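Dear colleague,

Thank you for sharing your sequence with our group. We've completed the structure prediction you requested, and as agreed, I am returning the results in plain text so they can be pasted directly into your records. Please verify that the sequence below matches your submission; if there's any discrepancy, let me know and we will rerun it promptly.
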Amino acid sequence: MLAGATAWIRRHYRRNVLLLAVVGIAVLPLAWRGPSCGQDFDFHLQNWMEVVAHWRAGILYPHWAFSANYGAGEPRFVFYPPLSWMLGALLGVALPWKWAGFVFTTLALFGAAWSFRAMARTWMTEQTATLAACIYAVNPYMLFVACERAAMAELLAAVWMPLLVLYGLRRTASPGKGSIVPLALTIAALWLTDAPAGVMGTYFLAMMVVVAAVTEKRWRLIGRAAAAAALGLGLAGLWLVPAFYEERWVEIWRAIGPLMRVEDSFLFGFLNVARLPAELQSDALYHNHVLAMASWVGISLLAATALAAVLSWPKRREGLWTPLVVAGAVMAFLQFRWSDGLWRAAPDLRYLQFPWRWLLVLGLLLAALSGIAAGRFQGLRNRQRAQALVALALAAGMAVVSAAVYWQPCDDEDNVQAQTATFHDAGFAGTDEYTPRGAMNDDIQPGLPPVRVLRAADADEGPLNPDLDTWAPTPADEVPATVQIEHWTAERRAAVVTSSHPGYAVLRLMEYPAWRVTVNGAAMPMPVRVHRADGLMVIPLKPGITRINVHWGTTGDAWAGRWISLAALAITLAWMWKERRTRRGEKFR
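Please find the predicted structure tokens below.
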């Protein structure tokens, strides 16, 4: 075994070194200039810090982001897939926060290159697959995602996309070497990494297998992909079921509000800023700026993919070419306004928000078709050296583009030090789409005490003095009382309120159906709790001592998701055991 491992390392180390070199060159701007404060940088950094804080409090799987809404929190981790924030948090435990983003990006790009090469070797030589993997890892959209957008979950999702091609289209060598289990695991990993990528990956897989089944008469591909998709979604059920069911409890529709809708972001479909309301004009200018870059990246990738398809035309009968070209044509169609009807009709497609998100998959198609085209020149002398030089030159070029165009400087509020300080101090503004239904989280100010005792349930509501940076008490609304905080962590709050008058305890905590509340030992279910317009939790008080306990409870939909995942896991293990027995039977036959 040791001799075999040594031989494998000798055979592959040069190509792995090339992948590392290409990725290392491409991410040099992040090492040299520091983190790029792109669109989602602060969101992901906050997630990572939140998760580390939960872990230190003994909560292995967080649900509630306690720093959101200036300490009132939001159910962010119910809806945001876990793999990216778990990886970021692990890096934050091991490294200073200023390096966590750089290492995350490096790991994601190298993982994408490695998985692409694993896929491409099925249809290409090892050398050509390595070159194509380099193209995939450092194509313009990948660096756009890493620096301009800092969309870490989408970047990590690039690791799984090539495996959809590998396990969705490959021919199995024997009855015991199937693709259903690895394809199901890939689909589960994709959904548990990034929801928009999960939608894209599911549609992409469907397109590929249908085209391959029709052109090659391999009808079993459709059944295999359908079975794997069902199993993969089941494996992801512990997150997917609550995220889907509990959408009714939050303002999820705000994720596709103005400037976030598909119709606002077709390539070169710039918004007329002057016609928009004044409060949207500043954001619209930035939207048009990002759309301009995405549009030029999109046009470049579309042109390069079309050229690669033409150059690889002589290899069209090898099985991979036709599904990729057809998928590429569909993605090109989806980039422009005439596809608006399809975006509206296809289930959940509108939640991609930006049509140019499909460029993540288009970069994969460009790399694969480029590899197929490069396979035509196998007879050239020094081909391996030439391909390595091409890959290194591409990485250097993309590093220059990233440094000059994509990399975003951090202002005083967004840099890592400021984000860390704010996290440990007042907290951050809330995320629109994770706001509990019917709540106005814009009315929550920084500096609220953990518990206020007020004369009326809706007293002291909203930013009464917008000129103040933090909340200030309004004595006329308050009831004289003493408040003793016994426990105040992310998913458990306990306080004792002593008052000689009736009133209402208003907690610095957003209402949500998963909270289990007891008052003096008696349960207080959600339907009987008082509602405030700002969404904060209200507990009616009688004169005397009132003990309030609030903790996060496991809802029925969460239990359902766990049972579905357990059932899918049992099926997966049974399937793997069956395939292993089949392989043994083939070996000794």
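Summary note from our side: The mean pLDDT is 90.

Kind regards,
the structure core
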